[in-house]
## 1
Amino acid sequence: MARVYPRAMATGTHNPIIAALDVPTAEQALTLAATLAPAVGAFKIGGELFTAAGPDIVRRVRDTGAAVFLDLKFHDIPNTVAKSVASALRLDVQMLTIHTSGGAEMMRAAEKSAVATAQQLGRPVPLVLGVTVLTSSDAATLAEIGCEPDPAGQVTRLARLAVSAGLRGLVCSPLEIVTLRGFLPAHVQLVTPGIRTGAEKADDQKRTLTPREAMAAGANWLVIGRPIYAAENPRAAAEKILASLG
Ligand code: C5P
C-alpha cells in the first residue's frame, strides 16, 4: 500500500498547527519559518508568497524540516490540474489545495496524479485537499454564478462529491466541522482556518473557534495566520496554542 502523509497522526505525535506564512517576501517567510519550525506541524504557502518568491520558497521552507502546505487552489481542466499537482509534488509539498467546484473528473485526476507522482518519487502521497465554498461567498455570490443560493447545502454537496472522487481531505470553516463530521467517512481529514485564541485583536475573521474547540469538533489540522505571525513573539504564541491543545 502507498505510504500516505501524515504518518505521525497514527503515532499520536501529530502537531496540528499549520502556520500560514502570509508575508510578501522570501526573507520574511524564512525568518518566520526558522523561528517557528520546532513549534508547528507545517507551514502554509499561499498565492501572495508563492507569486512573489517563486517555487524556490517551497524548497527553502521545506529545508527547515517542517511539512509544507501549498495553498494555490488549483481549478482548471483535469489534465492541467494533474500536471500542476505533479509539479507541486516535485517541490516536495505534503498538502495542497484544489477547488472541488472543478468537478469530479478534475478531482480524480488530481488525486491520481498525486498517487502516481509520489510513487515515482518514492515519497509518501501528499494530502490533496478540496476547497468547497469560500467563506467570503454568501447566498448572493452563489446566485450570481448560477448556483442554488444555499452556502451550507453547497458545502455538503461539494464535500460528498470530493470524497466520492477519492479526495482524502477538505478545507472547511470552523462552523462546518461538526456538520461534515456527521456524514463524512472518518478517514477524511479536515483542515480549518478561522482559528482565534481570544487574545488577539478583532480582524476580518467573523466566525471563529479556539484551537481546542476546533480540534474537539473534529478538525485534524488548524491553519493559523495572524494569531501567530502578528504576535509580539510568534514562537511563544505557537507554543502557547500547542499547549492549549493538551
Ligand atoms: O490570519 P488568519 O489566521 O485569519 O489566516 C488564516 C489563513 O487561512 C489565511 O492564509 C487565509 O487565506 C486562509 N483561509 C481563511 N479562510 C478560508 C480559507 C482560507 O482564512 N475560508
## 2
Amino acid sequence: MLGRLLGNASQSFLKRVSHIMKPQVIFVLGGPGAGKGTQCSKIVEAFNYTHLSAGDLLRAERGREGSEFGQLIDNYIKEGKIVPVEITISLLRQSMAETMTKDQTKNCFLIDGFPRNEDNLQGWNRHMEGKADVKFVLFFDCSNEVCIDRCLERGKSSGRTDDNRESLEKRIQTYLNSTRPIIEQYQKHGKVYTIDASRSVDEVFADVKAILIKEI
Ligand code: ADP
Ligand code: AMP
C-alpha cells in the first residue's frame, strides 16, 4: 500500500538523499491545543527547521480533489481517532522529499503530532529505520482543562470540525490512552524534553530555544 501511496519518486528520492543528508527529525508531541503548532512556527522563524504537522497534512489530503482517502480521513478526524499509519507516513515522506528536492540543505524537520500511537511508532520504525534520524521529542505538557479551553477558543475562528467539546473529549481520551504511552517509551530512552506548556507563548518558547541551542 505504501508504495502506491508514496509514488516511486519520493521513495527513491529519500533513498538517494539519505546517503547525502539524512533527514534529522524532532518529534513534537502534547495534547490537542498544547501549543505544538504555535511553538513550531516560532522555531521555524528562529532555526533552519521545516514544520510538518501530521494533522495539517491529513486535513490537506482530505480536501484534495480526487483523494481516495478524503472521506476516511474526515471520519477519523471528527471522531478524534488516529488515521491509519500508512496514509500519515506517506504524506510525511512526500513532504520531506519535496522540501529536500527544492533545497538539499533543508534536512531538519519538526514532525508535529506524530507518532501518536503504537501503530504510528511501529509504522515509522518499519518504513523510516535508517532513512531518518530521530534526535529527540519535544513534549508540550499541560492539563486537559487548558487544552480544551484553548481548542474551544481556537474553534471560534479555526473552522476545524474537531474544535468542539464533543470531539475534544474524544481527542483527549485518544491522547491519554494512545499518545502518552508513546511519550513514556521515549522517556525511558532519555529522549524527551518536557516543557511546561501552560505558561505564555513567550515563556514556553524561551525554554524551547534553550533546548534547541543546546541540542543542534
Ligand atoms: P496544537 O498545535 O498543540 O493543537 P495550537 O498551537 O494550535 O495547538 O494552539 C491552540 C490554541 O491555543 C491556539 O488558538 C493558540 O493561539 C493558543 N495557544 C497556543 N499556545 C498558547 C499559550 N502558551 N498560551 C495561550 N494560548 C496559547
Ligand atoms: P491535530 O491537528 O494535531 O490536532 O490533529 C487533528 C486530527 O488529525 C487528530 O485528532 C487525528 O484524527 C488526526 N491526526 C493527527 N495526527 C495524526 C497521526 N499522527 N496519525 C493519525 N491521525 C492523526
